[in-house]
Structure prediction request, 520 residues.
Amino acid sequence: MIPVCRLEDLPAGDSVRLDTTPPVAVFNADGELYAIDDTCSHQDASLSEGWLEGCLIECPLHAASFDLRTGRPTCLPARRPLRTHQVYVEDGVIHVLVASDAGAPGDGGAGAAEKGSAA
Amino acid sequence: MRTVVVVGASLAGLYAARELRAQGFDGRLVVIGAEPHAPYDRPPLSKGFLTGTADEEQLALADEEETAELAAEWLLGARAGALDARGRTIVLDDGRTVAGDGVVIATGAAARRLPGPPLAGVHTLRTLDDARALRAELARGPQRVVVIGGGFIGAETASSCVALGHDVTVVEAAPLPLTAQLGPEMASVCAGLHARGGAELLTGVGVAGLRGAAGRFVTGVELADGRLLPADVVVVGIGATPRTDWLAGSPLAVDDGVLCDDGCVTALPQVVAVGDVARAGGVRAEHWTSATEQPRTAVRNLLAGHTVETAHSLPYFWSDQYGSRIQFAGRRSDGDTVRIVEGSPDDLGGGPPTGPRGEGLLAVYERAGRTTAVLAIDRARPFMKVRRGLAADRAAELAAV
Prediction:
């Protein structure tokens, strides 16, 4: 598990990027925490810099959009899903359990999103 | 409408095919492509593909599943040679004909070349085959590369060549590259990226010609002021010309692109044009986003039989050079004032390919108190916010008309 930041340091609508390999982005979508691979599956761009609306994150480069709950793209130009990761809050600190590559990305297997509540 | 022929199998052509199916066209769909390749994405050609971080598989625009779903007939490696007087039959270069009752023109643009006999080592960078050839040549070890033209393709190619360890000089005929797109202040900031990245930029000087014996390797670039730049590889990035030559003799009006209305409809209601080749509402935009956005409107109008919708997307383009990402959106015109609202031109980072990233900057262009455009260097998040605001303003403006 990777500690991310204190819960109060990630307010609703905000995101933080973890310099893991590959990088992971953690979002606070209106109080629900999600973690997803940070790099858009279409072209190299950081989703942590994207536009968050509900559970959808729009890529800042070409407006591909992904569902944070599943990692699946919801529109072109992205076609491939991203891995989602489990998020935990322990003692007020957000942690991410990065999914192993074994799980098929976005297929709801080992890499399925486990949302953590920030409420 | 029973048969629609899409002429052009690149980004705009593929998006047109997708839109036809998405909007319910279930007839025969024929896609004609001059290149032998299935649709691929061009932007990475001057960047990841050239440096070897992206392979051909990653360039593909449609996977097998989607290609099957489109249920199109693909005529690849077939160049359109003519459109008949009624605008319904396309004659291919090899003499075959394809007839349809709807036509989407998406033939794009071709890289402009320098006059003179062909020399080995001289490249353009537009197609996958162009990029393959340049990539192979750059792989032969450190060389002296001269890039002619400091526009986006030139700058990106120069940046990739530096990253590969080559000695790079960029020659730009204008006093500054990218002035038309970015205005002088920000063009000057972006020009600075070359020096930070380790390429030499020569401005305000044209190219008199290339040196080298016909059919042999290029040896140098002769400048208009008499200087000679020794070169092993020359990349010519001096723009592109819309591919409209095949429309000669057709009823369609052509003037730097296929003339069409705001809805991408030509003088013939069953013929629409999209992407780099289309001059819609008086504007021809060689932007990736136009090529992906116009097809929706064009196809709606094609299927309706006349213009029922106009395309009015906000111009947007981006460029990756020397480790920096430049993004621009909006409609800038000369005389707009530029205000840097975040960051500073003195902290752009960059430098060698592995150099530290700077803080970047965000600049807005203003006229009469209103924001007309926005530019970001490594500031994606605030850029996106301003860009969305500009798009909303534009939509409101059009709704009010």
Observations:
- Residues 102-114 of chain A have pLDDT under 50 and may be disordered.
- Chain A touches chain B at residues 43-46, 49-51, 58, 60-62, 76-77, 79 (CB under 8 Å).
